[in-house]
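Quick one from the shared queue. A colleague (R.T.) flagged CWH43-like N-terminal domain-containing protein as missing a structural entry in our internal table.

Convert sequence to structure tokens.
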Amino acid sequence: MTLPNTPELQERLLTPQKSYKTHKMPLVPYVIGIRAAPIVATTVVIATLITCVSVAKAKDIYLGGLAWPYFSDTGRDAPGYTIFCVGLTTVAVALILTWITNYEFQRELMERESRDNTENHYAASIRKYCEVVRVLGVVSTFGLPVLAFFSTTSHDAIHKYAAYWFFVLEAVALVVNTIASFKLDRLTSAGNPHYTLEESEVPQASTNVFNPWNDSTSTTKRTFYIQLVFTTLFWIGFLLYIPIGLALIDDFQRLTVKDCLDLNLGEKYCTDTMRLNDTETVLWNYDNFHGINQMRSASQLACILTLVGYSMSFLSHRSDSLQDDTV
């Protein structure tokens, strides 16, 4: 049957049809920052750790008799002190940028979801978690330069509480941010309830075994799984390092001048540079609770490495997570 060639039909045929193609948002500056800052923090903290330990071992610096020392002891004497201060200050700046750009990414993601679904008030509750994380993450980092410049021997109390300040606030920030990531994943999943044909035709055999990496249908889900793993590992190290480790040690002892001289650390070093009083030096002697101190130093290392791993999870934030459907 031949269709009538009417003016209305010609107008409909010549009128451009609406395009439903999805356009990605341009890569905004904070997306670049959230990639660069964690890499800088990770690279610098590992380089600082390796350099300080290597210098201390090479120069035969006293480290309390531990096979793996406390990080602070490796940055006590020159030239490790300078490396320690510069390194941790750089890490602090990088972590500040990491937490801020992470918040900006989360905020943009929430705004997109709220714009797509104006009746969804779930994003407003998530924003509170994200704001708490931003404050905790940024404020915690000020402990790093403080504990670096105020060494464990010259300003013991300031150094100790600065370390507690950093690790405790970071521990809380990791938990709250992981909860926020979980809620963001639920928010984005709720906004995208439909699966593509390829996703619905996954072979039954592959769905019998739970694999969070293959099961992830979004970058927010992958980010959440990464953060959940590193948060769990961090908290294991954190509990052994601070609350449990400190509870098992009655009192930290100073290295006596006599023991210092017996270790051939140098007469001037023992009786002048590190002298506390007539019988003791400012150096710490961990022999009275050697095993527990070794556990604490290893746990401290675990906290540092898992915190680095957690910050690298922000690299899973992808710019294509922020995209608009234009009509």
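The chain has 15 helices and four strands.
The chain has one domain: 25-190+215-248+288-320.
Added to the table.
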